[in-house]
Amino acid sequence: MFADRAKIIIRSGKGGDGHVSFRRELYVPNGGPDGGDGGRGGDVIFEVDKGLNTLSEFRHKRKYSATDGEEGGKKRCHGKNGKDLVIRVPEGTVIKDAASDRVIADMSGDCQRKVILKGGKGGLGNMHFATATMQIPKYAKPGKPAQEIEVKLELKVIADVGLLGYPNVGKSTLLSRVSNANPKIANYHFTTINPNLGVVDLGEGRGFVMADIPGLIEGAAEGLGLGHHFLRHIERTRMMIHVLDASGSEGRDPVEDFYTINEELSKYNTELAQRRQVIAANKIDLFPVEEREEHLKRIREEFEPKGIRVFPISGATGEGIRELLSYVYSELQTIEVKQIVFEQEFFPEEELVVEELPFEAYKEQEGVYVIQGPRIDKMLGYTNLESEKGFMFFQKFMEDTGAFETLKKVGLKEGDTVKINGYEFEYFE
């Protein structure tokens, strides 16, 4: 199965925590701080692999994580950096933020490798906090947290030519006859539920890539049927072969079908409907030879004055196909190869809110307030509140994280007592 969409969760590595330790050497009873820094967390990197052409491997695994950085060690030892995670995808994969549907990266053109999530920075060890007045700092900084996001992967088929047309007009039959593709073919609507890609070889080094775009119905631009999932595959094609059922075997008017499909294209993307098209009037084998021109007359008179060539073909017998393909190849030589790349709309570094450990505050009694939670417990593990420098360090943490603002919301005022894990102090602004 051609898998063209997937949804996965990616997570970068957390930064390793800084270490608190002191030199312990013979004849050096009061060695200075030598706690090393934590390692950097691993990045999440997407990379184009030209050997891939589907997103099928993402159907069986949902979560991808880089490794965390290691904690710093004694003797100024730096923690080991986390290992980057490289995720390989086919060229043409568009990565979007699942929540907002905004583009993070388009893995095509010059963008062959991109860091999507950066790992957290390692925390500083206590060796960085020694000063003339504070020579034995008993605190270090924790590593920065990891980033996590759910992303959508969409593979937009990169083909020179797209096959357009209503369901069951013979697109899959045509593709199977002219290329190495092996699409599923049957006599019912929506046989094709995913785009099929085939290489058309005309010999002597001439050829092009053609995609059978799954059938459209009226209302596709509004998402009816399988509309949006199909329309996005046309966005990178340079030219389109519009396959019409010239025989009307499905009980529809081929001229009306052409305008209906192009109306859907215009609603979805006005530029798409303006791309060069050629008509393949299919199923002429259903007419006696002497009656064919009479049946084709209306289609020719409708479209050829507008510069749209009409080629009568039979996907079943192969009649007329060579002429059609030769014309398409010659037209492609005159169409500029324009790399369509979707611009980045979502910037994880700026917009991604890193989920922090929570804390809660409440009023214990008049003038006494309590704040607690794993976020504060974690910081206390790296801070010596009994030293002046450590207390100032922790107070800055309370201000920067909004902890004091949270306490104020439950009634904290200047002069009140704040209790934190057995510690008490008077609050002053």
* Percentage of β-strand residues: 15-25%
Assign an overall shape: elongated
What's the gyration radius in Å? 32 Å
| Average residue-wise pLDDT | 80
- CA distance, first residue to last residue: 64 Å
What is the strand arrangement across the widest sheet? 10-11-9-12-13-14
Q: Helicity range of the residues?
A: 10-25%
Number of strands: 18
Low-confidence parts, pLDDT < 50 over ≥5 residues? Answer: 181-193, 217-227
Tell me the series of helices and strands, N- to C-terminal: EEEEEEEEEHEEHEHHEHEHHEEHHHEE
Summarize the SSE layout with pairings.
Layout: E1 5-11, E2 44-48, E3 63-65, E4 85-89, E5 93-97, E6 103-107, E7 113-117, E8 148-155, E9 161-164, H1 171-178, E10 196-203, E11 206-212, H2 227-231, E12 239-245, H3 254-268, H4 270-273, E13 277-282, H5 292-303, E14 310-312, H6 321-332, H7 348-351, E15 360-365, E16 368-372, H8 374-380, H9 388-400, H10 403-409, E17 417-420, E18 423-426
Parallel strand pairs: 1-3, 2-4, 9-11, 9-12, 12-13, 13-14, 16-17
Antiparallel strand pairs: 1-8, 2-7, 5-6, 5-8, 10-11, 15-16, 17-18
Structure description:
- With 429 residues, the protein is an alpha/beta fold.
- A hairpin with a 2-residue loop joins strand 15 and strand 16.
- The two termini are 64 Å apart.
- The protein has ten helices and 18 strands.
- The strands form four sheets. A six-stranded mixed sheet has the order 10-11-9-12-13-14, sandwiched between helices. Strands 3-1-8-5-6 form a five-stranded mixed sheet, with no helix packed on it. A four-stranded mixed sheet has the order 15-16-17-18.
- The radius of gyration is 32 Å and the shape is elongated.
- Helix content is 20%, strand content 23%.
